Amino acid sequence: MADLPPASLRLKIDRDAIAHNWQTLDRLSGAASAGAAVKADAYGVGVDYAVPALRDAGARAFFVAHWSEVPAVLKHVPAEQVAVLHGPANAADAAFARATGVLPVINSIAQARVWTESGGGLCHVMVDTGINRLGLSMGDIGDPAVQSLEVDVLLSHLASADEDIASNRKQFDRFETAIEAVPHRRTSLANSAGIGLGTEYAFDLTRPGLSLYGGVQREELVGEIRQVVFPQAAILQTRRIEAGEGVGYNAQFVAPCDMRIAVVSLGYADGFLRMLGPDAVFRFDGKELPVLGKVSMDMIVVDASEVEDLREGDWVDIPLSLPETARRSGLSQYEILTTLGSRYDRGLV
Ligand SMILES: *Cc1c(COP(=O)(O)O)cnc(C)c1O
Fold it and tell me: Which residue, among 342, 289, 295, 330, has the nearest Cα to 311 in the 3D structure?
């Protein structure tokens, strides 16, 4: 196959912003060190961009969810620094951990047995302190299958760290109980928002994800976290339309006067969902290009009446401040990032 021509969509990734965000979260973690959640291709940013930036900034603990995510991360960091959150469901998973040297997170008595039967050795253990998702129940932590594990990090996950509610303290207290009950080397509780709860919640190791990539969910992080991902899309075509003509599916926008419009190579398949369309404004050279009508799968039409120098092939900036876009759309900052899709040429700023 011939080489692919450049895409008409690009995602500029600010490596310095990733490093800055990690260093900020590491500092806010007090005496604890910050690790990094890099699951789901580093939340859509791209493991090949995020992991080297995080490693060079100083991160030494990387978390993925699936075993399938391990090889991409191992291109950049040593295996003993990589943990797989979903844990070993069967002998094949455990064998893969052994062969690669990455550490499983044990989430149940069944997983503890799978790991021990495969030969055991150093692992992490997740205790469920109230999110009721993945992890050992508090009632199971005394089980001999758990007590016989060789535990590096004992971890738990907060359900509502982005809120100031009593359940955070309750999970904290349960985690302290688990710390007493399960022999371990290190402890870890806080995600990005949990770091905002204060250093008391940081224990030995924090596990930020979202905020590494520009997400801000708590007051304490406002002004501390920088935007990481900057999408740009090419203009496919410009045209003139007359007053009364409709734009896009169902003619949701009808031109009130003669206009010059431009078709942008970006659509909901690239994570720019329909709900982001109304009131959105793209930019060219700082000049405003308001979005018109419905967002299509691969195209968005903008009003270029005031930007006469805009031409086919020009690149326009797509605004993507995560906190602001989430506020406007009702989407979560996580969803906005992880649904960006694969059609962008990713590259450093
Ligand atoms: C995804 C994840 C994180 C990171 O959470 P953020 O809210 O993105 O900071 C930390 N720990 C666990 C167990 C996770 O699954």
Answer: 289
Q: How far is the CA of 55 from the centre of ligand 1 (A)?
A: 18
Ligand 1 centre from 149 Cα, in Å?
23
The three-class DSSP label of residue 71 is helix
* Contact indicator for 255, 227 with CB cutoff of 8 Å: no
The closest residue, in CA terms, to atom 13 on ligand 1 is 157
SS3 319: coil
Q: pLDDT digits over 327-341, tens only?
A: 999 999 999 999 999
Query: Which two structure tokens, joined as six digits, stand for 179?
Result: 């710390």
CA geometry: angle 336, 85, 112, nearest 5 deg: 160
**How far, in Å, from the CA of 222 to the mean position of ligand 1?**
19
85 Cβ inside 6 Å of ligand 1: yes
Whether residue 107 has its Cβ less than 6 Å from ligand 1: no
Can you give the C-alpha Rg of the chain in angstroms? 23
Write the pLDDT tens digit of every residue in 254-283.
999 999 999 999 999 999 999 999 999 999
Q: 0.90 cut: is pTM over it?
A: yes
Whole-angstrom CA distances from 173 to 9, 86, 137, 189 are 48, 24, 14, 11
Atom of ligand 1 nearest to the CA of 191: 9
The C-alpha atoms of residue 341 and residue 339 are separated, in whole angstroms, by 5
Number of H helices, E strands in the chain: 11, 19
